[in-house]
Specification:
Blueprint (H helix, E strand, L loop, with lengths): L2 H17 L9 H38 L19 H4 L3
Keywords: Membrane, Transmembrane, Transmembrane helix
Length: 92
């Protein structure tokens, strides 16, 4: 077979396929593809936000562990403790 004959056969096959009716599901394919792309974009945004929050938390924790702090001391009296509280009146 020569090249010209093969190309003519190929052109005929492509013409036959072109003349065939299309599947109705292909009409809605662009909506499905665009919806899938939007969903993927939303997932990527959520992952980036979660990664950023994690890195920020690690950085704050690391900085908090390095900064020297004053030693903890107990308050002399709990906040809101009145002289008329039952435990104070009973001498406990």
């Amino acid at each position: 077979m020569r090249m010209e004959t093969m190309m003519t056969d190929l052109d005929q096959l492509l013409g036959t396929v072109r003349a065939m009716p299309t599947d109705a599901r292909l009409a809605d394919m662009d909506v499905a593809v665009m919806g899938g792309l939007a969903e993927r974009r939303d997932r990527m945004t959520a992952r980036r936000s979660l990664a950023l929050a994690g890195l920020l938390a690690i950085g704050i924790g690391w900085a908090g562990s390095i900064v020297p702090s004053a030693p903890a001391q107990a308050a002399p009296m709990p906040i809101g403790m009145s002289d008329y509280a039952p435990s104070r009146l009973l001498g406990q």
